[in-house]
Amino acid sequence: MLANRHRFSYRLILISLLTFETSRRLASGDSNDEACLTNLHQTLEDPSNNLHNWTKPFFSNPCPGFESNLHGVTCNNGRVYKLTLTNLSLRGTISPFISNCTNLQSLDLSSNAVSGEIPPQIQSLSNLAVLNLSSNRLSGEISPNLARCSFLNVIDLHRNGLSGSIPQQLGTLARLSAFDVSDNKLSGQIPGNLAMRNGNSPRFNASSFEGNKKLYGYPLEEMKSKGLSVMAIVGIGLGSGVASLVISFTGVCVWLKVTEKKMEEEEGKISHSMPDY
Ligand SMILES: *[C@@H]1O[C@H](CO)[C@@H](O)[C@H](O)[C@H]1NC(C)=O
Ligand SMILES: *[C@@H]1O[C@H](CO)[C@@H](O)[C@H](O)[C@H]1NC(C)=O
Ligand SMILES: *[C@@H]1O[C@H](CO)[C@@H](O)[C@H](O)[C@H]1NC(C)=O
Ligand SMILES: *[C@@H]1O[C@H](CO)[C@@H](O)[C@H](O)[C@H]1NC(C)=O
Ligand SMILES: *[C@@H]1O[C@H](CO)[C@@H](O)[C@H](O)[C@H]1NC(C)=O
């Protein structure tokens, strides 16, 4: 009797333990999303405390339902699929762990003061369709491997401090419908496959590229005229150098002549003032 009762309570304990474990699993989020958000929160600085509810308990379960408790996080099927943190005075850098948000479709950190490089790990976000990092302080180059995110629709990197050339691989992104790298420090020739489509009709016009002093080629000004102006500047420089050399040489000659003449005159004076014996 006593033994039976014991067996029964053991079973009860076991069953409740199992139930607890299952519900705990259901209630807890994805460890990849947790790593992504935890690390992003660490590298971003939030001086205005706009991310006040980005706290540890929420990281472990960012998507309890359709809605996330975390400001700027949108969920789909229990996973983070949109991160929209625009105009929140954020600083700091983008964590390389951003790639642990493996279901991310949209990353929008526009209009902040985020600095550092665009982490190369972004290339492994294979579902990424929207990348909007415009109006920040990002530096470094745009990796050609960004083209591995083959679903990219939107690449908006305008108004940053990005340098280097525009990788021509980006022109192979078949779904790209918005591309803006204006107002950066990019250089080199604009890849033809970004500027053109089907021969002559423009894919992205000048407004996508302007505001980069050293960027050239269609749809911006061609290098030729810029090349000429560079040659002209070099020419003017060389010319004025030679001219100033000639002028100073002439000056020295004239000065020498004058002093010679003066000396002769002095000598003459001296010889004149010398009494003749
Ligand atoms: C984050 O991603 C890296 C590389 O993709 C992986 O090795 C690591 O296990 C992930 N971290 C977590 C906590 O899931
Ligand atoms: C988190 O913060 C945002 C912005 O301040 C707010 O809209 C949202 O309701 C907050 N969510 C929770 C669960 O506190
Ligand atoms: C950005 O935020 C500031 C203050 O928080 C606000 O005044 C401004 O209108 C916002 N800008 C945009 C474009 O939403
Ligand atoms: C990127 O974000 C900025 C500011 O939030 C917005 O004005 C712009 O339209 C966005 N870019 C695209 C291509 O949607
Ligand atoms: C350039 O293209 C954008 C859309 O991609 C359009 O809004 C804009 O008017 C175009 N500018 C010119 C000068 O054609």
TrEMBL record:
Membrane topology (UniProt): Single-pass type I membrane protein
Superkingdom of origin organism: Eukaryota
Transmembrane segments: 230-256
Family (UniProt): Belongs to the RLP family.
Pfam families (alphabetical): LRR_1, LRR_4
Subcellular location: Cell membrane
Subcellular location, principal: membrane
Signal peptide: 1-29
KW Isomerase (keyword) present: no
Keywords, comma-separated and alphabetical: Cell membrane, Glycoprotein, Leucine-rich repeat, Membrane, Receptor, Repeat, Signal, Transmembrane, Transmembrane helix
Protein name: Uncharacterized protein
Cellular component terms per the entry's GO annotation: plasma membrane
